[in-house]
Amino acid sequence: MAYFTTLYSGSSGNCALIRSEDKYLLIDMGKSCRTTLTALKSLGLAVSDCVGILITHEHSDHVSGLDTFLKKHPVPLYGCADTLDTLASRGTIPPAVEAIPVDGQTLEIGSFTVTSFPTSHDVPCCGYRIRTPEGRVMAFATDLGYLTPVVQDNLMGCDLVALEANYDAFSLHGGPYPYYLKVRIASDRGHLDNKACAAEILDLIQDGCKKFALCHLSQTNNSPELVMTTVYNVLLAAGIQPGRDVLIQTQSRSEVSPYIEF
Predict the structure, then answer these.
(1) What digits encode the pLDDT tens for the residues 95-113?
(2) In terms of residue numbers, what domain contains 23?
(3) What is the tens place of the pLDDT at every residue in 134-190?
(4) What is the pLDDT of residue 203?
(5) CB 14 within 8 A of CB 7
(6) What is the pLDDT of residue 81?
(7) Which residue among 14, 66, 110, 133 is least packed, with the fewest CB closer than 10 Å?
(8) CA pair distance 217, 76, nearest whole angstrom
(9) At residue 202, does pLDDT exceed 90?
(10) Hey, how many other C-beta atoms are within 10 angstroms of the C-beta on 111?
(11) Contacts made by residues 237-244, CB under 8 angstroms, sequence distance 24+
């Protein structure tokens, strides 16, 4: 079987992990190298077994630990060409690291098959569809203002989907953020809210997916309780019993979340 978890997930930093046997992929690294290494150690994983790091985009909550990590551990780095160019211009990618553009391609990374797809954000950004050696398929999509047809196509037919549930609309618009930031977050190039996440989960369940990880929750504008209430209400209205028919798990902001086997 294959396993998914996040080492940490939220507006303060993001890092996800897909594991098959003793090999794994990382997606993003938005907290310090030390934090990431400590999390890997808690899972009993060696850095030498990491076959690659997939980067979604250039924002600090996705790459802030990357430069130090890569200096110590020159793992192959993957991302869209614009993102890799930006990181290179900042000096984030050491010369010893192989940086490989993924734009719309399907690549073999170790024993994983990885396809990227664009997401709607305010900088070049992508999600990933990953096939494990066992033939299991998962998709990862965060930092998207809305679910484009391309994103929806790539989420279909998966055994597990890791999807953004960034904010509760009422909490955002009634909260402390300045107006311009509220507008940015709620725009088509911002982040995904709980209702849109819940509606997509319902569609994916009807397509056959049974396991979901809810990622990138805002600390200010969301909570695990808010998003789970929204998702449960949508599913229960459709006659779907969460916990019996499907597995839905919110991912922890600052701790390693429990593995989801898929």
Answers:
(1) 999 999 999 899 999 999 9
(2) 2-261
(3) 999 999 999 999 999 999 999 999 999 999 999 999 999 999 999 999 999 999 999
(4) 98
(5) no
(6) 98
(7) 133
(8) 28
(9) yes
(10) 13
(11) 238/202, 240/202, 240/205
24-41 average pLDDT score: 98
The three-point CA angle 106-120-193 to 5° equals 120
Q: What tokens were used for 146?
A: 């809305």
Q: Are 25 and 109 in contact (CB under 8 A)?
A: yes
Q: What is the pLDDT of residue 104?
A: 84
CATH of the domain at 34: 3.60.15.10
Q: For residues 86 and 57, give the distance between their C-alpha atoms in angstroms, rounded to a whole number.
A: 9
Q: Tell me whether residue 62 is exposed, middle or buried, using C-beta atoms within 10 angstroms of its C-beta: 0 to 12, 13 to 18, 19 or more.
A: buried
pLDDT confidence bin for 224, thresholds 50/70/90 = very high
Mean of pLDDT values over 214-234: 98
216: nearest Cα among 4, 7, 12 = 12
